[in-house]
Give the backbone structure.
Amino acid sequence: MQQTQAVAPGIELSKKELIQMRLPRGATGFAPSGPVQTHQWGTNRSAFLGQGMEFAESRIYQPGDDVKNIDWCVTARTGQAHTKLFQAERERPVYLLLDLRSMMQFGSRVRFKSHLAAEVAAKLAWIGHDGGDRIGALILGRNNIHSFKSARTRGSVLQFLDAVARETRQQELPDQAGLQETSLSDGLRRLRQICRPGSMVFVISDFADLNTACEREMKYLAGRTHIINIQISDPLDSALPATAGRISNGRDTLQLNRLGKQVLEDYASAFEYRSQQLKKLSVQHNMVLHQISTPESPACLFSPRAARSQR
């Protein structure tokens, strides 16, 4: 009889736990304005214009336009031939970029950042699946990157959740000697190559290595997709303790020496600068930004009033 391997609460997640994070059936699909509590399945507008059922706009008639679509009212009013454009009914694929690299395998309150990110990703995957959306994903791991083609099947979601659970397992931590983790900018570049125009993209990360290369990739991606950034943080990301102490990953313990005032200030300033850059980038390129810390429940992201969202 096969025994179920125990997981460390707040650090690791089992596939069963990720499956149980499926929200009630009433929460299904994503609307163009963003995630969470905008589950309007069937009301998604396409980023493309084409032949469809719903009128979008009129424009000046061009050679090759179907004469059956001439807008006679506008033509009579302006004296120029106009044709009608209709909203094309196209599906909106949903892609998740989930960061579970080494910097995410840390937490000082309640849980690891990777634990929180995995739970958020699981809920988003189930919402999209239950709404009939095609779900694709990239997982940035500690020594590799997992890619999942967009699909609408339950099996594809379970395959994704299985990979997420494995990446949270601490005993499966590989030997990092000589290995270089995939950067966030590389992950974004790869995502940009596989995303279809008009897709909805969730980037779930602490954005610890946000730099000009990341900003460039996010700018390109935002030009053709709708991006929701979810910044995961821990209280120790923004401020280190002034007094000495010990930290542990459950196996090893590290003694911290008392840090100088300038070191503490520089550390806090670096986090604040990175957060402000992410906010600025999100505003400039019409991306949604949610910020959540490890002591918080991910339920706050899925409430009708997600006050932390910014545009």
In short: The radius of gyration is 23 Å. Confidence is low (pLDDT under 50) at residues 31-53, 306-311. Residues 15-40+91-302 form a domain with the Rossmann fold fold (CATH 3.40.50.410).
